[in-house]
Design a protein that fits this description.
Layout: H1 6-20, H2 32-43, E1 46-47, H3 57-65, H4 71-79, E2 83-87, E3 91-95, H5 103-111, H6 121-134, E4 137-138, H7 155-167, E5 171-177, E6 180-185, H8 186-189, H9 201-216, E7 218-219, H10 221-224, H11 231-246, E8 250-253, E9 261-264, H12 265-269, E10 279-281, H13 292-299, E11 320-325, E12 328-338, E13 343-351, H14 358-375, E14 380-383, E15 386-387, H15 392-399
Parallel strand pairs: 13-14, 13-15
Antiparallel strand pairs: 1-3, 2-3, 4-6, 5-6, 7-9, 8-9, 10-11, 11-12, 12-13
Length: 400
Amino acid sequence: MNKIIHQTLIPKLKLITLESQGLLKESYFGKGKNAVLIVLEHLGYIQIDTLSIIERAHHHTLWTRIPDYKPKHLDELVEEKKVFEYWFHAASYLPIEDFRFCLPQMLDVKRNKFHYYNADPKIMNYVMEIIRKEGPKKAKDFESQKKRTGTWWNWKPTKIALERLFMQGDLMISSREGMLKTYDLTKKVLPKKINTKIPTPFEFAEYLVKKNLSAHGFTDLKQITHLRNSQVLKKNIVEILESLVLEKKIQKINLENLPSIYIKSELLEKKTKYQKPFIKLLSPFDNSIIHRERINDFFGFDFKLECYIPKEKRKFGYFSLPILFGDSFIGRVDCKTHRKEKELELIHLYIENQDFEIESWLESFIKSIKNFAEFNNCESVKITKVSPIKFEKIIKRLLN
């Protein structure tokens, strides 16, 4: 296949992937709780994160796509057994219909004695027995057990046992209170109608290909196999992609200085409709930017979450959010919620892409920040630093 000058194709690819992610239009997936399930089925998963400097990542990612989203929507879907928690490439919410595709990993954990949740089998048996007899339990419920006469367990080993039993599929998370999880027997949580047939390696590969193309519009081998090192899996994925190319359902495109991509034929031929550009504040764990190399390749945006590096080495701040304007990333903003004061602080707003006149994005940015403050249950916004400094005066004036 001939090389394609990627500068001419990149703008279309950017629109295709942003539309596939539901970021080009407001309420692309609809509204309310029903939209949450649609988003999960379309994207495949939503990553859970424990950091609470602002509203947690799973809620933020859904709110970005569903303007009237409320955290209770996700909790209700878990209680209704339409959504469940498990490990995708990280802790995630997934649609319950995809449960069977987690079974290979569950079995792998069960067979691996030296899994990183290396729990004591006796404590695992004890935890299972308690939940069978007494019903759903939180990790903290086992704290009192160590006070019983003659017991040899305490909270830390039982916590490890709970996580191991969860990872190997014996327990599921039946509900949450914030980050406090309640565990119950899988047979009590999983709906009876759900398919629990273990997928073949080929079926699992098909699942990953389908989900990646659905969520992103186009993909590549590295993205599909992210954090999955099985050579058998890679071989199956390559075979599936080549088959889809022969069937003309997808096209393989070689790009100059970039990996070859696979894209749905219908999307390449379709004229992507584009409304007036507006601002989206993305979570650092948003599905659209979780593959950092891809975002750098196609959007020219080099993003790294700096909360994991020493303070003195941070350039943009502890928890910076990428700022998407239409199909371009124009900067990032380091945020923090002061919950007692009900104030959202923009610690450092950094505008990197100055190809756009400030008038083109400022109104949408102010609106987005105010909506974001409301989403975080904040009544006011404080901005501490703006770079470049020339933007500081007008942004502070409009925010206040």
